Amino acid sequence: MPLVFYRYFLPAPQQPADAIVLEEAKGLVPFKAFDSSWQNNNEHTAWKEPASYNRAVAAVSYFTFDPNTASEADWLRLGVKPKTVATIVKYRSKGGKFRQPEDLLKIFSLPKDQAKALIPYVVIAPAASNNSFRRDSLPARPTAPAKNIAAIDINLADTSQWIALPGIGSKLAFRIVNFRDKLGGFYSIDQVGETYALPDSTFQKIKSRLRVNGSGIRAININTATVEQLKMHPYIKWNIANAMIQYRQQHGPYQSVQDLQKIAIVTPEWLQKVAPYFTVQ
Asked: 22, 29, 249, 267: least buried by Cβ within 10 Å?
């Protein structure tokens, strides 16, 4: 009878709070996982902090720490509650990483003001690159010797010589040669840059390898050329071609190429550009 009375009428002996904390730290008493599923199942269960934690809060000390490597004791020294420490440890054990100090704000059970107080002390070690050793240990790739491409005469080069230049394919080579033939030859290297669909970056890359001999220009006799012949030249628009023929019919043969300045629609800039292709003989 005394045993029955002791069992049912006297309260069970309570385990000291400090012992609970110790057993939790050893893994003997599992922490209540602070996730949404646990909250839903235990939303009416009150969490009571161990007495040892309440005493430790008064002695919180701040120091620099890496949240990816800080121990449970470090978190407790920083004033973080044991249940939150358990959440952090579980997160890290599953491969979770803190990549920036502000990631502390993402810890659901860590009060925002406490997270903000800890952020200035966070120092996260940079992640080591998996390829760093391989890059350092591999021998340097030998650089290919620069191709020694000879300069070309832009009035004599065929398509194969143009293709040998960097950035020039078969289409561009054909366009350059075709443009040259319609002009009657190049008198300036810069004229190559006027080729249709030739990028200026490509032209600048090959410009130093180009040479010009202006003696091979094919000139048009403006005293005998027909309007159709004039219109075929890339620099002569149909209205100027018509004006040149009409002026010749009204005033007779041109005495010099400079007589074209007497035509109202002819500008000095245009005449300077096209004059190398004209003759009066």
From this structure: 249
Q: Is residue 191 part of a domain?
A: yes
pLDDT of 32: 41
206 and 226 inside one domain: no
Distance, in Å, from the CA atom of 61 to the CA atom of 76, rounded to the nearest integer, reads 10
Q: What range does the domain containing 225 cover?
A: 220-279
**Which H or E element spans position 278?**
strand 278-279
Q: Is the pTM of this model over 0.85?
A: no
Q: For the stretch 165-191, what's the b/e string if a residue is b when 16 or more beta carbons lie within 10 angstroms of its beta carbon? A: beebeeebbebbbebbeebbbbbeeeb
Q: Is the domain of 194 the same as that of 231?
A: no
Reported as a single tens digit per residue, the pLDDT across 78-101 is 999 999 999 999 999 988 899 999
Give 3-state DSSP helix, strand, coil % of the chain, rounded to 5: 50, 5, 45
Say which amino acid occupies 249: Q
CA-wise closest residue to 50 among 26, 68, 23: 23
State the total domains in the chain.
Answer: 3
In this model, does residue 168 exceed pLDDT 80?
yes
pLDDT beyond 60 at 71: yes
Q: CATH number of the domain that 230 lies in?
A: 1.10.150.280
Residue 25 has φ and ψ, to the nearest 5°, of -65, -35
Confidence of residue 62 (pLDDT cuts 50, 70, 90): confident
Radius of gyration of the chain (CA): 44
70 CB contacts (<8 Å, ≥6 apart)?
A: 78
